[in-house]
Every structure is written in C-alpha cells, then in structure tokens.
Amino acid sequence: LLLGILGAPALGDPGPLEDVVIDRYYIPKICLREAQMGDFIRYHYNGTFKDGKKFDSSYDRGATVAGVVGVGRLITGMDRGLQGMCVNERRHLIVPPHLGYGSIGVAGLIPPDATLYFDVVMLDIWNKNDKLQITTLSKPERCNRTVENSDFVRYHYNGTLLDGTPFDSSYSKDSTYDTYVGTGWLIKGMDQGLLGMCAGEKRSIIIPPFLAYGEKGYGTVIPPQASLVFSVLLVDFHNPKDGVFLEHLEVPESCKRRAVTGDFVRYHYNGTLMDGTLFDSSYSRNQTYNTYIGKGYIIPGMDQGLQGVCVGEQRRVVIPPHLAYGENGAGDKIPGSAVLIFDVHVIDFHNPEDPVEIETVFRPEGCNVTTRNRDFVRYHYNCSLLDGTRLFSSHDYEKPQEVTLGANKVIEGLNSGLLDMCAGERRVLIVPPHLGHGENGARGVPGSAVLRFEVELISMEEGVPEGYLFIWHGEPPANLYEQMDLNKDGGIPADEFSTFIKTQVAEGKGRLMPSSDPEKVIADMFQNQDRNQDGKITPEELKLKSDEDQEKIHEEL
C-alpha cells in the first residue's frame, strides 16, 4: 500500500495517478487500533469530483457505511485508503479511475474515467476474533466478594460508541441500572464484563458488535454493527440466596451473655449503602435505637444480625434487599434493591423477665445481721450505664446515701440489691429498666437503660413495721397517758410528748423509725395523735397504733 501525501495545488497537475493519494489531515492523539485487512469498519464520508460536485454522501443518507476492509467488497481505492486508519481519524482520499469505477463508471452517477475525492472519518473498527476489552479504572482496597452469574447488580454507567458519541447514561436518569447478571437480561458483552467486579469498582468495558446489538443496532441511538464503550461504576450487588453477612469488628473479652429473641436491645448505628453513602445514623440524633429483636419490629436482616451480640460489641451487618426494604426501597435515601450495611455498637440489652443481677465483691467475715425491708441504711454507690458512661455517685456528696428500705424511696432494683447485705459488704448490681427507670428514663438516665451500681453498705439500723413510727420493745405502760403528761395538767403539748418519747428510746424501752432526722419522726407522731390539731393531745385522742388497727377491723366487720 502506497501512502501518498497530497501535493500543494501550486505545484500544478502531476499527471495521471498510479495509486490512491492519502491525506491524513486529522490523527487523534490516542490511537489504540488501526484498521487492518479483514477488519469490520464503520465510517462516514462525502464523495465529490475534482470540481467539488458531490456524487454521494453517507451523511445525506443519515446512516454510516459498514463493511469489511481489504477483502474486495469496496472499490479498490477505498479498500486501500481506509487501511491503517484510527477511530476518529479523518482522511482525504484521491482515487484514480482504475482504482474506482474505471472506464465504465456508474450510470447516471459517476462518468467513465472519473477521479474520485473522498472525505472520510473512521467511527468504528472490530474483528470477528475480537474479545471483550476490560480495563479496571479503580478498585476498592477491600473486596470480600465479586460478581458472579445470577447475582443482582446495581450500577451506574455512561455508554458511548467507539468514536465517543454518547448514546445513554444512567446518571442522566438519576437512577442506577438494576438487573441480574448471566441470565440473558443484558447484552452478552455486559453480562461478561460485569463478572468479577467489586462493589465500588470502576471499569471501562469495550464490547464488539457481535456481543452487543449486532447488525440490527438499537433504535436510532446505536447503529448496526457498532462497538460499544461502557464506563461502569458498580454500586452494589447481591444474590437472591444471600443471607445476612456478619463481620465482628470488636468483641469484649468478657461476654457473660448474648442477646436472643425477645431481648430488648439499645444500640447505636451508622447505616450506609455499599458505595459508602450514609442514609441514617443514630449518632446524628444523639439517641440510641431501642427495640426488641426477633419479633418483627425491625427489618428481618437486622432481627437476624443482632442475634448473639454482647454488651459493648461492635459488628457490621450486611443485609441483602430481600431481608431489608426490597425492590421498593424506603423514602428517598434507600433505593430499591439496595444492599444495606449497618455498623452497630451495642450499648446494652435485657429481657423483660430479667431479675436484678447481684455480684458480691466483698463480704465481711462473721456476717450475722443483714438488711431487711424497713431497715434504715447508709451506703455509697457509683451508678453507670453498661457502656461505662458515668451517671451518678454518692462520693460527689459529703455523706453516704440514706434510705429506708422498702419505703419506695429508691428504684425497685436498687432496693432489692441492698437487701441481705452486711455492713461493710460491697456488691455490683445490674438493674434492668423495668426495675429501674423504665422506658421513659429519668433526668440523666436514658429510657430503657440497664444500670450498673457499685454499692458499699456503710451502716444499718433495724427498722419498724410498715405504718409505724415507733414501736415498744415490750408492753407499753398501762397508764401511758398519765406517764406522758409530765406536768399533770390534763394535756400533752409537743415538748412534753417529745421529751417522753426520747426518754423511752434512751432507756431502751422502744425505738423510733430509723431516720436521719429523729425530730421530724417525733413531730410526725405528735401530729398523728393531735387529732384536732389544737397543739395538745387529750386522753381521748391518744391511741396506740395497734389499737387503731383493731378499730379499723371492727369498723369493716
């Protein structure tokens, strides 16, 4: 093949041409392939005579010319002039008569012995022996799994012809293309080109026509026998047979218990799509997500993914769409058929049937007297959440906490945990929310929170029965009113009442309800006896608690 260069017109007519004259007036910077004998090509052209008169044009027909080069299916001059061309290269060809239509010409179109001038642009080159061309543009560092046949994929793409002409784009539709791979739903080349991809990977896939739309093309956008170039970003993929995939990111060394169906779990999470797009986060709301597991209150994949978690564990839960929000998605942040990734941090969990968990850290030797309900106790405590978040501590105050057990002055779980303790004993209490502050929580305590108490009993005083402020150690005096009326004036004011009660306590004849304020207990006793509230107790008003209780029984009878 002789590749001539058009001479400058000023040089005059060089005489009859012996071969095709080729002027490569535009050569692209990148030329991945040149047309060779036997290649299938697509090109546009304008054909004119020397005087510029047009005799033919593919542009006027609105269709490219496609054929095999170098095998005699074109006029000899065109066969020679097209060889060696790159995609998007432009050439001027001068074809002498003996390499064109010769002395016969084409009736009514090309006269005999006509020299032909062609302006050609190459659009596509392929060969029947071509294979798919795959170039990886970028790939995530982590790739636990790649696309296989029968997987369902979601991907974005830009589709162009080999010359760069765009014909379609998922980005313009603002939606991924979603389909199965290897089941005949895609052109063969794309079915093959997606295999082995990782989520987040980008590829360039060049598909020859026989693996694309072939000789028929597709509508008005893809010509017959067109090679296709797809720039693909794989957003996510899954298989309909997939279950939940778990990745244990951090598991505490000590895990005494694992969550099971029916447990109530409090956890933080970040929810992302496979490409890393964040669609939801409990951290952004500064509030845990609280729910029962295994009961259908959350998507099935999360119901499964939280089974077996430990308090404090961090795990990644990868959920296929059929165990999440399916083909419809959710709202405007979770697309249809999306794989969801939850990075979960379990704060705590409990079961509604859980009792208080008590661990004795230290118990003094010779522990014979232990606390009971109605006892008055002093204790130190530290209170925290199970993740270690500090809530309250008695050490922040000048003295220990004081309370009468069984008087509904502390949460039920703490009251239970303080029973049967010796002075000096130390315990760790795990209090479930139904024995704590419940689903609403309290000031500084989140709703449905499991609480951890470290308690130390400092001292205890024996209590009195419920409803009593004072009890006698033996039988009360038979002439109680006369003994209480110290000045014998027929009335007992508050000071006389107080002096008498204190004397009984001092002499060991009775005891007050334990309290940090004995004066208030005595004042309450006086107010109970001064029934008409005139500031003194008369003989008719003074009654023992046991007598009052008996009178109530008779009234009921």
TrEMBL record:
It holds the Pfam family FKBP_C. Residues 531-557 have a biased composition (Basic and acidic residues). GO terms for molecular function: calcium ion binding; peptidyl-prolyl cis-trans isomerase activity. Residues 524-557 are annotated as: Disordered. Its EC number is 5.2.1.8. PANTHER family: PEPTIDYL-PROLYL CIS-TRANS ISOMERASE FKBP10, PEPTIDYLPROLYL ISOMERASE. Transmembrane segments: none annotated. It comes from Leucopsar rothschildi. InterPro entries: EF-hand-dom_pair (IPR011992), EF_Hand_1_Ca_BS (IPR018247), EF_hand_dom (IPR002048), FKBP-like_isomerase (IPR051989), PPIase_dom_sf (IPR046357), PPIase_FKBP_dom (IPR001179). Residues 479-507, 517-552 form the EF-hand domain. SUPFAM superfamilies: EF-hand (SSF47473), FKBP-like (SSF54534). Gene3D superfamilies: 3.10.50.40, EF-hand. It comes from the Eukaryota. PPIases accelerate the folding of proteins during protein synthesis. Residues 38-126, 150-238, 262-350, 374-461 form the PPIase FKBP-type domain. Keywords: Calcium, Endoplasmic reticulum, Glycoprotein, Isomerase, Metal-binding, Repeat, Rotamase, Signal. It is an enzyme of class 5 (isomerase). It catalyses: [protein]-peptidylproline (omega=180) = [protein]-peptidylproline (omega=0). GO terms for cellular component: endoplasmic reticulum. This is peptidylprolyl isomerase. It is found in: Endoplasmic reticulum.
